[in-house]
Write a structure and sequence with these properties.
By secondary structure, the protein is of the alpha+beta class. The chain is 32% helix and 26% strand. It contains six helices and eight strands.
Length: 180
C-alpha cells in the first residue's frame, strides 16, 4: 500500500489504538494485546507530549523503518524519558500528560517555489543539507499561527542552519495524520 494512502486509511479507532500504545509505553506497560494488524504496516511516526499545553517531549521516526505500532511505542518512551531538551518524566507527571501521535506520510522532494504558497498546516517539512537536517510537523505552523515562509524559515533554524537555508538545501514535504 502506498504510504499516503495508508495514513489516509487510518480510522479514529486506529488512532485510539496508537494513543493507547503510546500511553502504555510511557507508563512502561508492555501489555497491549489487541494491536490491530493494520498497525503492523511500516510507517514513520512522532509522539508529542504536552503538559498544560507546554511541550514536554517530542521524538519520532520520519521514515518507515519499522511497523507503525512499534514506531509509536519507541517514540513515546523516548519522548518521555530521552528527549534531550527535557529532564526525564516523573511518575507524578504521567497523569497530566496529553499525547499526540502524528503518522508520517511519504517524503516528497519539493522546490521552494512549489511549497511556499501552500496552506500552512497542510504539509510537514524536512530540510537536509549535508550533516544538517530538521523537520517540523505540519501542526506546528497552525499552532504557532505561522505563514508558510515563517514555517520554512523555522524548519531551517531547527536544522541548525540560517533561515534562508532552503536556497541551497533539499526540501521534502510530507502529509501526516494526527491523533490526540
Amino acid at each position: 500500500m502506498v504510504l499516503d494512502e495508508f495514513i489516509n486509511s487510518l480510522s479514529d479507532a486506529d488512532g485510539k489504538a496508537l494513543i493507547d500504545i503510546a500511553r502504555d509505553a510511557i507508563q512502561e506497560n508492555k501489555n497491549h494485546l489487541n494491536v490491530p494488524e493494520k498497525l503492523e504496516e511500516k510507517a514513520g511516526a512522532f509522539v508529542t507530549l504536552t503538559e498544560d499545553h507546554n511541550l514536554r517531549g517530542c521524538i519520532g521516526y520520519l521514515k518507515p523503518v519499522m511497523p507503525l505500532a512499534m514506531a509509536v511505542e519507541k517514540a513515546a518512551w523516548n519522548a518521555a524519558y530521552r528527549d534531550p531538551r527535557f529532564e526525564p518524566m516523573t511518575k507524578n507527571e504521567l497523569k497530566n500528560i496529553a499525547i499526540e501521535v502524528t503518522v508520517i506520510g511519504e517524503l516528497k522532494e519539493i522546490k521552494y517555489e512549489n511549497i511556499h504558497l501552500a496552506e500552512p498546516g497542510k504539509f510537514g517539512l524536512y530540510i537536509e543539507n549535508g550533516i544538517y537536517s530538521g523537520t517540523l510537523l505540519p501542526q506546528v505552523a497552525v499552532e504557532n499561527n505561522m505563514s508558510m515562509d515563517e514555517f520554512i524559515a523555522e524548519t531551517c533554524r531547527k536544522a541548525g542552519m540560517g533561515e534562508d537555508c532552503y536556497k541551497n538545501s533539499i526540501l521534502y514535504a510530507y502529509m501526516a495524520k494526527i491523533f490526540h
